[in-house]
Design brief:
The protein is α+β, with helices and mostly antiparallel strands. It has one domain: H/ACA ribonucleoprotein complex, subunit Nop10 (Rubrerythrin, domain 2), CATH 2.20.28. It is built from one helix and four strands, in the order E-E-E-E-H. The chain has a two-stranded antiparallel ribbon. It is elongated. The mean pLDDT is about 90.
Length: about 55
């Protein structure tokens, strides 16, 4: 079964593997899991970035 893909160059959705001379990508986000092993590290980095920008 084929899935819908998105061209990063032009932003169009297609069923083709290539568009505008570049490979198309899956537009769906990665699966979310509460047991993600590195989630704590990701949140710490994001918190540091937000603090540096003065947003929190």
């Amino acid at each position: 079964m084929k899935h819908i893909l998105k061209c990063d160059k032009c932003g169009k959705y297609t069923m083709k593997e290539n568009c505008c001379g570049v490979k198309t990508v899956n537009p769906k986000p990665a699966k979310f899991s509460m047991e993600y092993a590195y989630g704590g590290y990701r949140r710490e980095v994001k918190k540091g970035i937000l603090q540096k920008e003065g947003l929190i």
